Amino acid sequence: MSPTEWAGGEIIRARRIELDLTQAKVSQAAGLVMRQYQRYEKGEREPSLSTARAIAEALDLPLSELAGQTDLASATTTAAPANAVAEAIQHRRRRIGLTQLTVATTAGLDIEQYQRYESGKEELSLAVATAIAAALDMPLPELAGLVPRPVDLNGKWWASWQSAPGPTTNNIDTHSVAALHAGGRILLDSGWRGELRIWNNEILIGWYRPPVPVTRTRQGVFLWLPTHENYLIGRWNGVSPNNAVISGWCALARDEAESRQLADNLIGGKLQARPTLRLPGLSNWG
């Protein structure tokens, strides 16, 4: 399918009939005027990427299937602004070391047109998004924001842990730790061992074992990675030598002082860090 063709009308029509939904129901769920939706279903007009996502979500249909790609696991999310899609494209292109001209040529686009997409000045149609995703060898749902862009947690971190309950409960143990990010797992090394699983690019759940055991079990860990931030905060849990469940605060950061300050705020004043809320411009929403 070339970037200017739209052949998904029959797909959404068949899916709507399969779900026994009216055109009015689907258009309402997708936030569209029914006449506009009818043109998409007839194949008379190609939807933008954000509109295609809205239709796919309304029909519980994988975006990749709507685009004619191999079916991938479906996911639902709010429509991403054009600048978020542009950021995903730019990040992927730089990560695999391609020039804008190479991607544009592979996708069958003029370089000026591709640059408008990567800068977020123009929203991609579904067909163009499919062509660019293929050129960048990335899943279409990842480009569209349905699958979060992977974060890089590799390297050295500073971990600060609240001491186990006792006379020195508010003490903080700070040390460095090496993290190896492999797929959905983060392996912890250097002084203590552990393994974490990352969910939706923001929640990490797993266990760790200190080099000198302070509990009689491996300690469970729940950590939160705020969007656009470079630190994690959360809590650890374990079982004490006298068979009691114990818990404490913990924080990880790239900088030793920041790690300790985050833990100190959590322990001393129960003050949790509040990352800055970033809202896109209203004109960017589909």
TrEMBL record:
InterPro entries: Cro/C1-type_HTH, Lambda_DNA-bd_dom_sf, TransReg_Diox_bact_type. Gene3D superfamilies: lambda repressor-like DNA-binding domains. PROSITE patterns: HTH_CROC1. Keywords: DNA-binding. It holds the Pfam family HTH_3. Residues 12-66, 89-143 form the HTH cro/C1-type domain. The keyword Disulfide bond does not apply. It comes from the Bacteria. This is Helix-turn-helix transcriptional regulator. It comes from [Mycobacterium] crassicus.
